[in-house]
Amino acid sequence: MLFENCVAFVTGANRGVGKCFVHMLLESGAKKVYAGTRNLDALRYADQRIVPVELDITDASQVTRAAALASDTTLLINNAGLNCNEAALAAADMNAARTEMEVNYFGTLNMIRAFAPAMPAGGAIVNLLSILARVTLPSMASLCASKAASLRMTEGVRAELAPQGIKVIAVLPGAIDTDMSRDFPPPKIPAAEVVKATLAALDDGTHEVYVGAMAQQIAAGLVRDRNATQSSLASAN
Ligand SMILES: NC(=O)c1ccc[n+]([C@@H]2O[C@H](COP(=O)([O-])OP(=O)(O)OC[C@H]3O[C@@H](n4cnc5c(N)ncnc54)[C@H](OP(=O)(O)O)[C@@H]3O)[C@@H](O)[C@H]2O)c1
To answer: Are the C-beta atoms of residues 168 and 205 closer than 8 Å to each other?
Structure first.
């Protein structure tokens, strides 16, 4: 299995899905996990196999430092993300749209550009996107745009890194039960389901992982009738 004995780097490791990745990777046999966090005081890990790393993925110098410190990384989990819950036009200004693009798109790309050159053949990169990379929920339109941009970037990076023997996968969950979706109505899947599906995909070679019934139904709807599926979301909150 790809993640057994791996050295992983998880961004946004202090809470939510990132924290779950740290624990489940170690349970699955990872040798070491670098835990990237903006605030080292927010990390409460006692396990010696966990190496805390101060990291804001939008800060180029911190990303460069993290890549140098963690040059033995074989599995990069780009989990850190931001949802400002803003529509495209109703938002007071463009700040949310710019910040989401800065974190979700440019921050993720920063990480890949810094880590990929040292990554060995057989390594892997996971980009935590969202089913909202494939459709637009109007009340979160700028988040959707940033995740859609990241999906296109993931496809480009996958092609560029294939000759180096590095696998690149996109994870597209529906709503997850974390702080980010605190105000989103149920059903929400547990973070552990996202991690489990990601680890399974690393094993079986799936490129795009649709996690949970919501994501799988939307993905199937897009194949059947793209316009009807997008229209059904136009009136949702
Ligand atoms: N929750 C959902 O319903 C849902 C659905 C689909 C996809 N996702 C995706 O899943 C991933 C994990 O989200 P989550 O649900 O675990 O959300 P969360 O609980 O809000 O956690 C977000 C994590 O990202 C970190 N982060 C934000 N901006 C960062 C930056 N500039 N640099 C470094 N770290 C940063 C946060 O750090 P701080 O603690 O410092 O803020 C936090 O650790 C995200 O990419 C998200 O878009 C979530």
So the answer is: no
